[in-house]
Amino acid sequence: MIQDHDQDQGPGSDRLAHARSARGERPTTTLITTKAELRAARAALGGTVAAVFTMGALHGGHLALVRRAREIADHVILTDFVNPLQFGPGEDYAAYPRPLAEDLALVDGLVDLVFAPSVEEMYPVLPPTVSVSAGRAGRVLEGAARPGHFDGVVTVVAKLLHLTAPDVTVFGRKDAQQLAIIGRLTADLDLPVRIEPVEIQREPTGLARSSRNVYLTAAGREQALALSRTIAAAQAAAPSVAAIRAALERALARAEIDWAYALALDPATLEEIAEDHRGEVLVTLAGRVEGTRLLDAAVVEATAP
Ligand code: PAF
């Protein structure tokens, strides 16, 4: 049952929660809407804390992040906030779903705190006078199609990291560019938090799980499998960068979907890599099916010329 933050849990409740978490028991989930309450509740958590940042409308992909967070920390804070800064003019900010009651029911007993602030609470001044820039990495790939999007993402993530002060934060690998940019945010600004990437959740067909899949017809879902088939082809083509690129070029040439890009890049910087590169390679794909932009990605190891 969701608890109001004001309700006194009594002395020693921290130790109790910690012991419960160690025994795999379910935490009491508390809904919090202000920064002051969040800071107080965070300070009262003993042990390690994992943060899961979301814009709500939770689905199985988010629950996989929550499960991983529960495995690697004593306590979990989930944030549920539709961030206006990361939507461009003409994008679906107003229409974006905000089913807070359903979200709370989904994570009840799985996380310790849900932070769901209003826009005014998060941004007393909007747009904020000072914000964070994602730099070049924010202007390529998805950022080229959505100018300013990643600046909005890193600004809210920087705020949420300060507010939740987690030991570790969990991000999905499907949004590979977001993961890379948040890696740069924490490294470049020396933010003391570890980032835990979580593998893409797939449907039995191989299609990467995404809230956007609901826009696809049965035929569109079939067509969208070109993405996961291309990932599989790139994985099979490893270990050489040239062979991975050849597999991606074959997929682009087949034009089964309206491709935006299919690239092999450096996973940390999103820069092009040389053909003789050894180490991790990010294979990142985007394409449009029935008017919906879909993403897929994988990190593969290049070990041979
Ligand atoms: O991935 C998302 O849902 C959002 O970009 C995030 C990280 C919660 C920031 O608003």
From TrEMBL:
> Which transformation does this protein catalyse, written as a reaction?
(R)-pantoate + beta-alanine + ATP = (R)-pantothenate + AMP + diphosphate + H(+)
Record's keyword annotation contains DNA repair: no
Q: Where are the transmembrane segments?
A: none
Q: Which SUPFAM superfamilies match?
A: Nucleotidylyl transferase
**InterPro entries from the UniProt entry:** Pantoate_ligase (IPR003721), Pantoate_ligase_C (IPR042176), Rossmann-like_a/b/a_fold (IPR014729)
The UniProt GO MF terms for this protein read:
pantoate-beta-alanine ligase activity
Where does the record place the catalytic residues? H62
tRNA-binding listed as a keyword: no
Recorded E.C. number(s)?
6.3.2.1
Keywords of the record: ATP-binding, Cytoplasm, Ligase, Nucleotide-binding, Pantothenate biosynthesis
Which portions of the sequence form the region Disordered?
1-29
Q: Which domain of life is it from?
A: Bacteria
Pfam families in the cross-refs: Pantoate_ligase
Localization of this protein: Cytoplasm
Q: Partners and quaternary state? A: Homodimer.
Q: Name the job this protein performs.
A: Catalyzes the condensation of pantoate with beta-alanine in an ATP-dependent reaction via a pantoyl-adenylate intermediate.
Record's miscellaneous remark = The reaction proceeds by a bi uni uni bi ping pong mechanism.
Family (UniProt): Belongs to the pantothenate synthetase family.
Q: What is this protein called?
A: Pantothenate synthetase
